[in-house]
């Protein structure tokens, strides 16, 4: 009898062990579901952005650097934005290949760090260049007869240089291996499981300086520009001609922020607060994947801004098309 009882206990223990193993298997399968979602979404989106962004930004840079192209502070800011976008889209085939190979990195540790670094350099250079463009256009609407430093050619070049230096330096912590990826050199472009606390602290600073301040600046420019146009006594036709590009710049920039940057910064913050992936926050982690794609898509949407708002850009494009 004693032997049978022991066998029963052993049987129950085995059943419990099987349940634990089954649960672990489910958790492993769950984690793989997140990887599978990334592997289904990222390659398609990244390659789409690469082809569209490479063509759009290469053509934009070609037009901006034409000797006959009008040299203005607005075009200088847009030139730098196009260069930043082209540098970023050139990294997308490497990012796509990582997910096509089943989240397996084959290009080495240094290249992995460069991929992470390039993403955030482009994102925050884009944010700052778009913000300065909105300020320049804002001054053209609200103070049409005043000449501000921000609209000066020399000041525009200095401002662009300062933005590059600041963003390149501020993004340098991403070269740290503990932040850029896993200790395994074959694992890249994913959050290091032990770096969440560091990233949460960095995110708080970046969220304030790199997104919230520029976003609030653009909203203020938009509100006061609309207010100035409504109060303007200039005849409607003349007002449309003189302010069309300025208003287009601010509106398109605001749309880019709302579509590309706002969702990503909100979801990234929520993602870091929640921590590791679990069944309860599965939707948040999947949403973050989608918002990162939207943030990357900014690189192929910026040429739309150039077409409608850059000085003499539309005429040059039409001239090239006729040729």
Automatic annotation (TrEMBL):
The keyword Zinc-finger does not apply. The chain crosses the membrane at residues 44-65, 86-107, 119-143, 155-180, 200-225, 246-267, 287-309. The keyword Membrane applies. Gene3D superfamilies: Rhodopsin 7-helix transmembrane proteins (1.20.1070.10). InterPro entries: GPCR_Rhodpsn, GPCR_Rhodpsn_7TM. Residues 56-306 form the G-protein coupled receptors family 1 profile domain. It is found in: Cell membrane. It holds the Pfam family 7tm_1. PROSITE patterns: G_PROTEIN_RECEP_F1_2. Keywords: Cell membrane, G-protein coupled receptor, Membrane, Receptor, Transducer, Transmembrane, Transmembrane helix. One of its GO terms (molecular function) is G protein-coupled receptor activity. It is a multi-pass membrane protein. PANTHER family: G-PROTEIN COUPLED RECEPTORS FAMILY 1 PROFILE DOMAIN-CONTAINING PROTEIN, PURINOCEPTOR-RELATED G-PROTEIN COUPLED RECEPTOR. This is Cysteinyl leukotriene receptor 2. It comes from Cairina moschata (Muscovy duck).
